[in-house]
Amino acid sequence: MIRYISRYDRGRFALAIAGPYALIVVGVTIYVEISTRQPGSQGLEAIWLFAVTSPASQILLLLPLPAPEISRFLFPAAGLLQAWILWLIVRGRRKSMTPAGALPLRDDHEGQDQNRMG
């Protein structure tokens, strides 16, 4: 995983920003799911999920959703999509050098020349 991240100019920095955001989205989703199922809950805990996944959650509120149960999956998905987009923006361009541990490719003409001589 680290080799994949280090292929980009700012891959580790992007992971340091997008990773915790994705963990916060997952943690708040778990908190909201557990706390709204407790007796006496009025569902106001979902405001935390709305706040964490903003601005995508604000756009989702404008869409006509067929059932409230669908928003249970859409808001966390929107937050994870935002984390992915954040990683794409922050990571920068792919490095031109080969990653550490990669084997250099052999030129096909060299292999053919060795076969002819040997």
TrEMBL record:
Residues 99-118 are annotated as: Disordered. The chain crosses the membrane at residues 13-34, 73-90. Pfam families: DUF7942. Keywords: Membrane, Transmembrane, Transmembrane helix. It comes from the Bacteria. InterPro entries: DUF7942. Residues 105-118 have a biased composition (Basic and acidic residues). This is Uncharacterized protein. It comes from Acrocarpospora macrocephala.
